[in-house]
Amino acid sequence: MTETRQTLFGEITVSVSNGKVAELAFSPSEPKCRDGRQLHTSDVRLLNRAFKQLDEYFSGKRQLFDLPLQSASTHFQQRVRDTLLCVGFGETVSYGELAQRVGMPGASRAVGSAMRTNPIPILVPCHRVLAAGGKIGGYSSGLEIKRRLLNLEKYAAPGYWDGWTAEDNCVLLYLRIDGKILLIRKKRGLGKGKVNGPGGHIEQGETPLMAAIRETQEEVGLTPLTPKHCGTLQFAFLNGYTERCEVFQAEAYEGTLRETDEAEPFWCDETAIPLDQMWADDRYWFPLLLRGKRFHLRYVFDDDRLLFGNTKK
């Protein structure tokens, strides 16, 4: 039995044969039942269980899988698989190190070949095997997927945010006047097409406050007066990009509202915030902003899909 479902990581196809997981693929066209065995209808509950555990893994809630797996085609491949299953969540080994653990030092190429024919990636975590010197090495489903899986485990590991520094430092600023809030629809850059507040990158030599005022002037033509800091957001994306965002609000301004090449501004009633058109994390911290509560929250995304973070309201 084979089924493709939309997961937090994108479309994934799982095949079940004789009561065991036989294949996992990252696109509907990829499963091939490589060893020639016929896929038979099996217990639907196993398929549901597999997808449930995968979503728990993608949302940072699961580090070990508890699923029956179809045996490898050869004794050597099974030895490599069994050894690889002992490489823990967030850990990596080289092909050479894995060959030593298998008990065959010098057989790194054979180990690499066994990884390339692994029909159950993620569940048998071949993404945790790197080339010598920590280089990413190969991956049968593509290096982009391998990087995303490695970053997923890095971000979900305990202590990841300790001493964390971001690749980019940004700001957001929300003007709030008489029960209305100024929002924009972004025309370019990260989040293009989404509804957000005016904001952008902190330039060299700027404080976050200076950047918040400048970005609001540039994007909507208004100068916020006496903005105050409301909270901090930290973001990590599976493509490796990281961002820290300082959030401000102001209750007065000077200037005339205008549309620019960067943003289409509009006033919105605070009781009708279009959260379905905003980044997925906004629904968790925006109510705090409106209630005047400070926040410091962290989120992990895959493209624009929220995987995990501070999601308790």
What would a concise description of this structure say?
This protein has 313 residues and is of the alpha+beta class. 25% of the residues lie in helices and 29% in strands. The longest helix has 15 residues, at 44-58.
Reported for the largest beta sheet, the result is:
9 strands, mixed
CATH topology of the largest domain: Arc Repressor Mutant, subunit A
- Give the SSE order as H and E letters: EEEHHEHHEHEEEEHEEEEEHEE
Query: How many beta strands in the DSSP annotation?
Result: 16
So, the CATH homologous superfamily of the largest domain?
A: Winged helix-like DNA-binding domain superfamily/Winged helix DNA-binding domain
- How many helix segments? 7
Q: Give start-end ranges of low-pLDDT stretches.
A: 33-40
Structure description:
The protein is α+β, with helices and mostly antiparallel strands. The chain folds into 2 domains: 2-156, Winged helix-like DNA-binding domain superfamily/Winged helix DNA-binding domain (Arc Repressor Mutant, subunit A, Orthogonal Bundle); 168-309, Nucleoside Triphosphate Pyrophosphohydrolase, CATH 3.90.79.10. The protein is built from 7 helices and 16 strands. The strands form 4 sheets. Strands 6, 7, 8, 9, 11, 12, 14, 15 and 16 form a 9-stranded mixed beta sheet that branches. The chain has a 3-stranded antiparallel beta sheet with strand order 1-2-3, covered by helices on one side. Strand 7 (180-186) and strand 8 form a beta hairpin. The longest helix is centred in the N-terminal third of the chain and has 15 residues, at 44-58. Mean pLDDT is 92; it is low at 33-40.
